[in-house]
Design goal:
Length: about 90
């Protein structure tokens, strides 16, 4: 995955959340909060980070993962990192 659009990343996350957590794709919108709306916990966040790392080749640190609070924040972090920019924890 090289510098995908925000829409492509959102579609990837929709598929990931449906496959890993059985969350319907229509619930995975940019404004959806990971904990409050999608009911993910810290273990789920680790799974998301691992899958993103596997798909993109990026390495996300724990501070970056902990700082993510919405689907949009995941998309933004991955886009920044794929463009060679530091993440939220830099």
């Amino acid at each position: 995955m090289r510098e995908p659009t925000a829409e492509a990343l959102l579609e990837y996350l929709r598929n990931l959340f449906e496959k890993e957590f059985e969350i319907p794709q229509e619930r995975v919108i940019p404004a959806a909060r990971l904990v409050e709306d999608l009911e993910l916990d810290s273990l789920d966040a680790v799974i998301v980070a691992l899958r993103v790392e596997e798909e993109t080749g990026l390495e996300l640190d724990q501070d970056e993962v902990r700082a993510l609070d919405t689907v949009a924040s995941v998309v933004a972090l991955v886009q920044r990192r794929l463009q060679g920019q530091p993440g939220v924890a830099s």
